[in-house]
Amino acid sequence: MEWRQISNSERKRIGALQQAKHRREQRRFVVEGTRSVADSIGEFAVETIVATSAWLDANVRLLPPSEILKAKHIELLTASAADMDRLSGMKTPQGVIAVCRMPEGSDSIEAAEIDSGELTLALDGVQDPGNLGTIIRVADWFGVRLILASHDTVDMYNPKVVQSTMGALSRVRVVYCDLPQLLAQARERGADIYGTFLDGDDIYRTRLGKGGIVVMGNEGNGISAATGREVNRRLLIPTYPSERRGEAVESLNVAMATGITLGEFRRRQR
Q: Distance (Å, rounded) from C-alpha 90 to C-alpha 94?
């Protein structure tokens, strides 16, 4: 397996991918960490792998055979520990990153493309990369293949998001859009638009359809007023017992709430 030293221009180009602006311009993103990089080769269109010599000594066996890497036209670069610190967005770099191409044709969507008979997830201003990554994993677990995201939702190719998804990003389509407008169009086409609110109907007691769009809101402010106006099925995840509402935590983490909500939809379908 032939590895060559990373050049200054390559170091600058790859390092710039920590910023969303450069990811959009280059149509590239990075995957970081030993397990994530090893898994990414079968999940994403990997273009380059960068590793320190220490990582290669300990982990090169985790990569596919050289003939497979060559057939996939994956460039293999070595970098010093200091270079890896500059390339990585992790507090403690693991010594390896992969540069992947973004898939084509995933930048826009029309309401007509949304299957009202299937569950679709919509995210309204989710800001934390760890939350978004976990939500994508939850969606993958429960068989949700499409996530609609408002433009102020964190970038799905943020390295922390990619790492948190554990490969689920390759199986779940995430599309950024004018969320209120798209929900309005979907509702006009007869779709159920669900959202979680403190004054909603108990999710465990109300009717839930097989399909529809499930909206989850911002970590601190919940679902925005503009998006909330398009919700025609308001749901509540109740505390237990219900009379403890004033004593319990103020709200659930959005990733946790997503798991509970999708889990209840899928339980009904069984």
A: 8
- Per-residue confidence (pLDDT) for residue 170, from 0 to 100: 85
pLDDT attached to residue 209 = 92
CA distance 102 to 17: 12
Q: How far apart are CA 135 and CA 118, in angstroms?
A: 17
Label residue 248 by pLDDT band (50, 70, 90). Answer: low
Phi, psi of 143 (to 5 degrees): 75, 25
Calculate the average pLDDT of the chain. 92
The pTM (predicted TM-score) of the whole model is 0.89
Each residue's pLDDT tens digit, 17-40: 999 999 999 999 999 988 888 888
Contact criterion met (CB below 8 Å) for 100 and 74: no
Distance CA 187, CA 149 (A): 17
Return d(Cα 74, Cα 47) in angstroms, integer.
5
